[in-house]
């Protein structure tokens, strides 16, 4: 049986960033316009006015200070409140595949790998641009990889599910080198007119190269163990799909965009994930004191604080549980991979860490890694 390892990661960050102040200003303008248009109904008490969003709330409740987006002007225009990303003709690569290729090229460069050595591509992300052909096959074509490619979606847990899938392919001999990409255009499924969630997400793309240890570069990450879990919940939903494409779009059909019961998610997911990490650590014979760092899913800073304290038995330092939420916001499946990519260069041989993701489904995944000699 082959031994899978992580050879390298890649990250592509969009050029535009939106601060909380900019986002709140456009939301508040949109809300004022909405109220003005319904002045009579609001005055008669028939409908409730929209209330303002606030920078202070966003930062305190989530830890988010800004987010990167592919299109800034549409998101911030109170008459649009959505990204405006031009449709591309069929002979051009899709935006989702393009940003995945950007992240993938960095991972290949860092591993010193040629595209023709890759024999499987997995596109693991929350929101695919279309049903088919698969974005993963576009990535395969654009890079010039051989073998097979497919898309998979496990919402915010897509990357850890993708890593386990890739590792299983390597272990079984189905593939020697698997490129797993997480292009996330979260701004496309976020309702920027929903005060409760308009601040949550950002756009990004990450890539992880999972390979047979005998083929991988000398410097790599041993995969000590992977574990996946799902448990049904309605608390995070997005009902958009091809069976309801005739439904009105945007603010009139908010359930066709991201929707959540944030409080319930917080309360239910924290214990589920902490228990999962602790159980997996026990199964692998690992000790919390031997865990150098946790690269947790980046949804909410308070959530990560609680999860890490349930694992360590005390509050984790920024070094032990780094955040990228402040600059990237929640980037769905890519969050824990951005944290891993940006905060792992200081690891020495034998240092151990945990990549962990969780989200809609509910779903959660843990990947324990160790820096190679
Ligand atoms: N600006 C100002 N006030 C706001 C606001 C905004 N943008 N959004 C909500 N509020 C208000 C609410 O109206 C509420 O006011 P009230 O107490 O007068 O009723 C108050 O702030 C608290 O709202 P609540 O929704 O309970 O906030 P919260 O502390 O639960 O934080 C989240 C909201 C979304 C940040 C938090 O619940 C969260 O991150 N949950 C986990 C989400 C998650 O991980 N999802 C996975 C996605 S992949």
From TrEMBL:
Domain Beta-ketoacyl-[acyl-carrier-protein] synthase III N-terminal: 150-230
Source superkingdom: Bacteria
SUPFAM superfamilies cross-referenced by the UniProt entry: Thiolase-like
Keywords carried by this UniProt record: Acyltransferase, Transferase
One Gene Ontology term from the biological process aspect of the record: secondary metabolite biosynthetic process
InterPro entries: ACP_syn_III_C, ACP_syn_III_N, Thiolase-like
Annotated Beta-ketoacyl-[acyl-carrier-protein] synthase III C-terminal domain residues: 282-370
Pfam families: ACP_syn_III, ACP_syn_III_C
One of the record's GO molecular function terms: 3-oxoacyl-[acyl-carrier-protein] synthase activity
Gene3D superfamilies registered for this protein in UniProt: 3.40.47.10
The name this protein goes by in its record: 3-oxoacyl-ACP synthase
Protein's organism: Hyphomonas beringensis
């Amino acid at each position: 049986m082959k031994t899978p390892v992580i050879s390298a990661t890649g990250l592509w960050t969009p050029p535009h960033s939106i601060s909380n102040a900019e986002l709140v200003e456009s939301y508040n303008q949109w809300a004022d316009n909405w109220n003005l248009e319904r002045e009579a109904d609001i005055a008669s008490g028939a409908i409730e006015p929209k209330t303002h969003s606030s920078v202070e709330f966003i930062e305190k409740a989530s830890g988010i200070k800004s987010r990167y987006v592919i299109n800034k002007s549409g998101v911030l225009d109170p008459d649009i409140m959505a990204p405006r990303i031009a449709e591309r003709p069929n002979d051009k690569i899709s935006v989702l595949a393009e940003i995945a290729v950007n992240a993938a090229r960095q991972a290949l460069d860092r591993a010193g790998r040629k595209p023709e050595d890759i024999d499987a591509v997995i596109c693991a992300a929350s929101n695919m641009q279309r049903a088919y052909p698969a974005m993963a096959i576009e990535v395969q074509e654009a890079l010039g990889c051989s073998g097979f490619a497919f898309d998979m979606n496990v919402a915010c847990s897509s990357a850890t599910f993708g890593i386990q899938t890739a590792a299983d392919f390597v272990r079984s001999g189905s593939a020697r080198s698997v490129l797993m990409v997480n292009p996330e255009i979260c701004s496309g499924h976020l309702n920027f007119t929903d005060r409760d969630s308009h601040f949550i997400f950002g756009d990004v793309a990450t890539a992880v190269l999972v390979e047979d240890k005998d083929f991988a570069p000398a410097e790599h990450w041993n995969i000590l163990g992977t574990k996946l879990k799902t448990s049904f919940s309605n608390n995070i939903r997005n009902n958009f799909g091809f069976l309801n494409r005739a439904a009105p779009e945007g603010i009139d059909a908010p359930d066709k965009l991201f929707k959540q019961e944030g409080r319930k998610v917080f309360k239910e997911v924290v214990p589920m994930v902490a228990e999962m990490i602790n159980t997996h650590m026990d199964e692998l014979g690992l000790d919390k004191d031997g865990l150098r760092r946790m690269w947790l899913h980046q949804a909410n800073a308070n959530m990560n604080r609680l999860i890490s304290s349930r694992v360590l038995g005390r509050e984790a330092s920024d070094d032990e549980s780094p955040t990228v939420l402040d600059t990237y916001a929640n980037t769905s499946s890519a969050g824990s991979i951005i944290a891993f990519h940006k905060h792992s260069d200081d690891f020495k041989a034998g240092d151990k860490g945990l990549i962990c993701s969780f989200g809609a489904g509910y779903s959660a995944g843990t990947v324990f890694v160790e820096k190679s000699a």
